[in-house]
Design goal:
about 325 residues; mainly alpha
């Protein structure tokens, strides 16, 4: 349940912040007349996201077991890809998000009502569709036939809405950079579990092999129906008897993705900049040394020319005297 609560909180807060930025900018610029089309675009985005989630849930029930597993596994992998891209994108562009949305809103205000609706819809709709897909995949992974995962998601979204309202009213301030870093890291852990579950679905659909090749089986130590087994499954999508392929995919995704996500922002650029500065200093030093050498050579050649000229002058003088 905690993992699904985290998904609802993180995704819902991103959408809430987008809404707060749009509404606050219109109020600040005294364009309250544009609030109605903006809220209309937001409402359309929410409705389409809910319809997309409902279509995934109820549409898959009419399929055969293998088709359900194939669809579930494929969409789980797609959801993990989208969420991974989202957490890295938010980490990289969060500081510029406000400026970017203001620029799009200014352009939409100049174009008219339809553009305002489309801007709000696109800003919120992308978050909504990603959330619907990832929530559906996570709920399937953490507990089919149980309402707890869905309750966790709804509680997370409700918390995000309250936090968004408090941000808008100025009653709450938190370090959003740290918040998105920590929650993003935890989402990567949750996504790794969803990815492993998606691989298991594809194995059950006979799309991938190795279903009987278990990496380990600790069901006797951690029973799936125990409170701690349920807790581990709800938080990390833990499975006591995963296949070798599940464990391999889980590790290959989690370790490098988490390492890259937690690395300092701009680390690669900083290293390149340091190398460039060192190379520039070396070039300047070499250049100054080369200039000094050239100056020394030039001075020596000048002295030789003076000596040659003196000798020629002496020779010419001697001839005149003879």
């Amino acid at each position: 349940m905690f993992g699904n609560y985290l998904i609802g909180l993180r995704e819902g807060l991103e959408a809430s912040l987008v809404v707060c930025i749009l509404v606050a900018y219109l109020v600040k610029t005294e364009r309250r007349d544009a609030l109605r089309p903006v809220w209309g675009g937001i409402a359309i985005a929410v409705a389409i996201s809910l319809a997309f989630g409902a279509a995934l849930e109820f549409g898959s029930q009419e399929m055969t077991f293998e088709a359900q597993e194939l669809l579930g596994g494929s969409l789980s992998i797609i959801a993990v890809g989208l969420v991974t891209w989202m957490v890295f994108w938010m980490r990289r562009t969060a500081r510029h998000l406000k400026k970017e949305l203001h620029g799009k809103l200014d352009a939409a205000l100049a174009m008219g009502t339809g553009a305002l609706v489309a801007t709000a819809f696109l800003a919120v709709g992308r978050e909504g569709l990603e959330t619907a897909l990832f929530v559906w995949a996570s709920v399937r992974a953490s507990g089919e036939g149980s309402s707890e995962p869905l309750i966790g998601v709804l509680l997370g979204i409700a918390t995000a809405v309250v936090l968004g309202w408090l941000f808008y009213r100025g009653a709450l301030r938190i370090n959003l950079a740290k918040f998105f870093t920590w929650t993003g890291g935890m989402l990567v852990v949750v996504a790794a579990g969803v990815l492993a579950y998606g691989v298991h679905d594809l194995q059950e659909a006979r799309f991938l092999g190795g279903l009987r090749n278990k990496a380990f089986d600790i069901s006797a130590t951690i029973p799936p129906d125990s409170w701690y087994g349920t807790l581990l499954k709800g938080v990390f999508n833990f499975q006591p008897d995963p296949t070798v392929l599940q464990v391999t995919v889980w590790a290959l995704y989690l370790i490098p993705t988490l390492a890259l996500f937690l690395a300092p922002v701009g680390f690669g650029r900083s290293v390149r900049a340091t190398d460039q500065k060192a190379q520039k200093a070396t070039d300047e030093k070499a250049g100054s040394t080369g200039d000094g050498a050239r100056d020394s050579d030039g001075a020596e050649r000048g002295r030789e020319r003076l000596r040659d000229g003196a000798r020629r002058a002496g020779s010419a003088a001697g001839g005149d005297e003879v």
